[in-house]
Amino acid sequence: MGRREYGGGGMPGWLGGLVEESFFVGCGTHENRRKNEKNIFCLGCCTSICPHCVPAHPSHPLSRVRRYVYNDVVRLEDLEKLIDCSFVQPYTINSAKVVFLKPRPQSRPSKVAGNTCSTCDRILQEPFRFCSLSCKVLFLLVDHVLLQGEDLSSILFRFDESELAFSRFENLRDDDDDGRITGGAVLEGPMQSKVGSPSGHAGRGSSGTKKNKSNAGFFPQIVLSLNNRRKGAPHRSPLS
């Protein structure tokens, strides 16, 4: 399977793929097999794969994506191996802390005064500034890359590939866990969450459902929208 091209502007391909790929859709290669939903992300190929695809990626770092009420989430402990998640609102679902990959649909931007996502205006608890990983990455693409000419290396971590190894997914085809999470989501308060200080966010170095279709092309569209917004009324930077 070939490597997909994502990124640009100092963004690694795997990061662009993680926030752009569609998950929990049927795998075309294994369409006649059970449990063929794409719920794993290959950081080597920058693409989503199903459990039956895993043997074809024996030396590639892999990460599990889960599903909560039609939205893709990743466990915070897994995501923090790859990227600085400070200021992203986490949730506790079934005792596990998770982060949404993309902003959840909302009927209209919030007009309520208070703390909101710096990208999509969803209401958040203090001191969080982003409702999802995508919103943080998109904000930094505009604020750091487009406006300041920097890159995203300060929030990227050199991950240990052994912690994302093929062996963790070998038995997933026979596992009863399909990655879908049920139960209520609890907002993580600031005292329980691992939130870095605004000045200390530097990393350790660089390195088909309707719901999915609604997010197609989200990345470039929101970059343009956010860039236009920042040309108007000034907004405070959440990382300054």
Brief description of this entry?
The chain is an alpha+beta fold. The protein has five helices and nine strands, in the order αβββββαββαββαα. It comes from Musa troglodytarum (fe'i banana).
Shape call:
globular
DSSP helix fraction: 10-25%
Q: Radius of gyration, rounded?
A: 18 Å
* Count of individual beta strands: 9
Beta-strand portion reads 5-15%
Reading the helices and strands in chain order gives HEEEEEHEEHEEHH
Q: Strand sequence of the main sheet, in spatial order?
A: 8-4-5-7-6-9
Structural class: alpha+beta
Number of helices: 5
Largest sheet: 6 strands, mixed
What is the overall pLDDT average?
75
Taking pLDDT < 50 over at least 5 consecutive residues as the criterion, the unreliable ranges are 191-220, 232-238
Gap between N and C termini: 41 Å
Structure description:
This protein is an alpha+beta fold and 240 residues long. It has 5 helices and 9 strands. It has helices at 13-20, 76-79, 133-146, 210-214, 218-231, and strands spanning 40-42, 47-49, 62-64, 66-68, 71-75, 91-93, 96-100, 180-181, 185-187. The chain has a 6-stranded mixed sheet. A 3-stranded antiparallel sheet has the order 2-1-3. Helix 3 (133-146) packs across helix 5. The protein starts with 12 loop residues before the first helix and ends in a 9-residue tail after the last helix. Mean pLDDT is 75; it is low at 191-220 and 232-238.
